[in-house]
Design brief:
Shape: globular
Radius of gyration: 22 Å
Helix content: 25-40%
Largest sheet: 5 strands, parallel
Strand content: 5-15%
Order of helices and strands: HEEHHHHHEHEHHEHEHHEE
Number of strands: 8
Structural class: alpha/beta
Number of helices: 12
């Protein structure tokens, strides 16, 4: 049996994320049951790191690793199926607005977002990508299942014609006012110029049938760019997942809290298709970043991803906690934990975590020694 020290980086302060190790183990079990695993790696977890894991030898049939900094997803291109094109179109436009908001440090006003949304709607109508009776003739749209992605319109095209599209949207009744149109175009153009190579180009990523797919964000040091790429790629990633597959998000605490909520509609739509999700955090609680932007943790997902952690989440695995964390856990579970559990959660035992599941009334402390 593998010993836990085998997956410890010797003489290094930055150790492999324990939550990612457990999440990888869970993904391996799901794969063994005949499904695929899609990993969004926001931390430095690397299943291909030599001399640490008992994984199979790399083959194109088993593993595929994308360096997210070297592939592009066209910001303007949608993903999904034609029979759900209405919802895909809604999420696409909202995603674009969200990305521009992230680029502006989440400072866009409701009016700004309304102007961008109107300009987008006019753009897709003018290009013939969207039609009013799309529910009757979805095959006449050009939002999803794009056959020639290399010639699809880009965010650069959108910004270049932004003011024109706003004027057209006003005349067509898609907007009530657009006082900030010129100023907003300049702001968006300035923001886009910094990230044009990532989101201002056509889609370059090549699809794969590999059983385990990794979207590696570790080479992106710019935290804002990490948020942009996460939101921009999420729809594509979950689109490639089928019923029974799992999407594992490693280092979920690297997302802004608001970015986490921006991804909710896409994730929820995938769940309705039978796709499963694992959220792996490198810590229990979060803090704000240097710009005062709140980061994600398991607690501030409440109210969006779950109402009651005990009822709405199949499994939760929680590591050693501070007293303040224990209070938050009890609030999230909507229950009081026994004195024994509270004390054990704070105990300084290596590799120990609380495994909780409502079904079967599981509340067990486990010494993890995974074989991955």
């Amino acid at each position: 049996m593998q010993h836990y020290h085998y997956i410890i980086r010797k003489n290094e302060e930055n150790q492999i994320s324990a939550s990612s190790i457990i999440a990888q183990s869970a993904a391996n079990h799901i794969v063994m049951a005949g499904h695929r695993a899609h990993h969004i790696v926001l931390n430095d977890f690397n299943y291909f790191e030599p001399n640490h894991f008992y994984r199979p030898h790399e083959t194109v049939d088993i593993f595929k690793n994308y360096d997210v900094s070297k592939v592009t997803i066209n910001l303007m291109q949608g993903f999904g199926s034609l029979d759900d094109v209405h919802n895909a179109y809604y999420r696409l436009r909202q995603k674009i607005v969200n990305v521009f908001n992230i680029m502006r440090d989440l400072e866009l006003t409701d009016t700004d977002e309304s102007i961008i949304m109107g300009a987008l709607e006019q753009t897709y109508n003018s290009l013939g990508y969207w039609i009013p009776n799309a529910d009757v003739y979805p095959e006449r749209t050009n939002i999803v299942e794009i056959q020639n992605p290399h010639i699809y319109t880009t965010a650069t095209d959108f910004i270049n014609k932004f003011t024109v599209r706003v004027v057209e949207a006003l005349s067509n009744g898609l907007l009530n006012k657009a006082d900030r149109a010129d100023t907003l175009r300049e702001l968006l153009e300035t923001s886009l110029s910094a990230y044009r190579s990532v989101i201002g180009r056509t889609t370059s990523i090549e699809p794969t049938d590999a059983i385990q797919v990794y979207y590696d964000f570790s080479s992106i040091n710019d935290l804002k760019l990490k948020q942009i790429q996460y939101i921009n790629m999420l729809e594509y990633i979950v689109h490639t997942a089928k019923r029974g597959d799992v999407v594992v998000i490693h280092g979920y605490n690297n997302l802004y809290e608001r970015v986490s909520r921006m991804g909710f509609d896409t994730i929820n739509a995938a769940k309705e298709r039978g796709v499963r999700f694992i959220y792996a955090f490198d810590g229990i609680s979060s803090t704000s970043n240097s710009k005062g932007i709140a980061m994600s943790d398991m607690f501030n997902m409440q109210g969006a991803y779950y109402a009651d952690l005990d009822v709405d989440v199949s499994w939760s695995i929680i590591g050693r906690s501070l007293p303040s964390d224990v209070e938050k856990v009890q609030k999230a579970l909507n229950t009081d934990l026994s004195t024994h559990i509270v004390e054990s959660m704070q105990a300084k035992f290596d590799h120990q975590a609380l495994v909780h599941r409502r079904i079967g009334q599981v509340n067990s402390f486990v010494q993890f020694n995974p074989i991955i």
